[in-house]
Amino acid sequence: MKKFITSGVCAREIALEIDDNGIIKNIEFLGGCDGNTHGIENLIIGMSKEDVIKKLKGITCGKKSTSCPDQLAKILEENF
Q1: CA 75 to CA 16: how far, in whole Å?
Q2: H/E stretch holding 5
């Protein structure tokens, strides 16, 4: 799995494994709201990176301009 440092959110790191077809095989958040990050992990395994980006990009958390899901979408856009 490749590890990525997040910015501006509670999760400090997101580790991802994506196959050659752009399907998310494994994901793990380090930090963040435990129930929410586990929910995201379970929901997106098996999804295409494009679908995940469409669903999660732009989500904010409270007064923050980003969120853990938004950080994930940015990582997918920029690195895969």
Answers
A1: 9
A2: strand 2-5
Tokens of 62: 């409270």
CATH numeric code, 2-79: 3.30.390
Q: With CA atoms as reference, report the closest residue to 12 among 40, 42, 32, 35.
A: 32
Query: Tokens 């979408």 correspond to what residue?
Result: 73
pTM here is: 0.95
4, two tokens: 């990525």
Which of these, 21, 3, 23, lies nearest to 12 by C-alpha position? 3
Mean pLDDT by 10 residues, the chain (80 residues): 97 98 98 96 98 98 96 97
